[in-house]
Design a protein that fits this description.
alpha+beta; Jelly Rolls; six-stranded antiparallel beta sheet; two-stranded parallel ribbon; 6 helices
Length: 211
């Protein structure tokens, strides 16, 4: 059915190669049960940790991209009960080529559709995407990332490699780089809270490790 149509083939391959699913470890969705578990935990509001989520060539490519980047900017701020100091790439015009490519994958419509299917949350808004490097002395106290920015209501967060949502002060004796890519899939308009699933043994676990 339509396999001999060049335009249909190009569209199919385009969607395949622009979806995050194509670059994930094949074991993640190797069976329907694993996919169901991920979906159940996300819809219940759990933090889901998937070890070695990206295929090794992709992970190696992105580590090299951030490791070789030299134009990191310092961001710091102080509020009641919260302060931070770290190095980031926030401005799109500073993105190296491979980071732009990565953003396009995370922000593609096929990726948004996948995350929306798994989380049962509207993810059709503009993606929030950045990279970070925590040098010795850098830190970020615990925070909830609540944002009231119009047109970008945060729905599902991602962090690669996996990390808790705060960073204790990096030791002055640290010898390796703490590099990360993180962000949010968002909705254009405000939505109701996540759809609560029946209690099937997966509800309200604060941290779940799969794979």
């Amino acid at each position: 059915m339509g396999t001999d149509n060049p335009e249909a083939k190009n569209e199919l391959f385009g969607r395949m190669f622009s979806s995050l699913e194509f670059f994930l470890n094949p074991q993640i969705f190797a069976d329907d049960e694993c996919k169901r578990q991920i979906s159940n935990h996300l819809t219940n509001g759990d933090l889901v940790v998937i070890r070695d989520a990206l295929q090794e060539p992709v992970a190696t490519k992105m580590f090299a991209c951030l490791n070789e980047f030299s134009n990191w900017k310092v961001y710091e701020g102080y509020k009641d009960h919260f302060h931070y100091h770290h190095h980031n790439i926030y401005e799109k015009e500073l993105y190296p080529t491979d980071l732009n490519w990565c953003r396009e994958i995370f922000g593609s419509q096929p990726t948004k559709s996948l995350i929306q299917e798994l989380s049962q949350r509207d993810c059709d808004g503009e993606i929030i995407f950045s990279a970070s490097w925590y040098l010795p002395g850098d830190h970020s106290l615990p925070h909830d990332d609540v944002s009231n920015e119009p047109g970008a209501h945060r729905q599902v967060a991602f962090i690669w490699p996996d990390s808790f949502h705060h960073v204790t002060q990096v030791s002055p004796y640290a010898t390796s780089k703490r590099l990360a890519i993180s962000g949010w899939w968002t909705s254009i308009s405000a939505t109701e809270d996540y759809v609560k699933q029946p209690d099937n043994g997966t509800s309200r676990q604060s941290l779940v490790e799969l794979i």
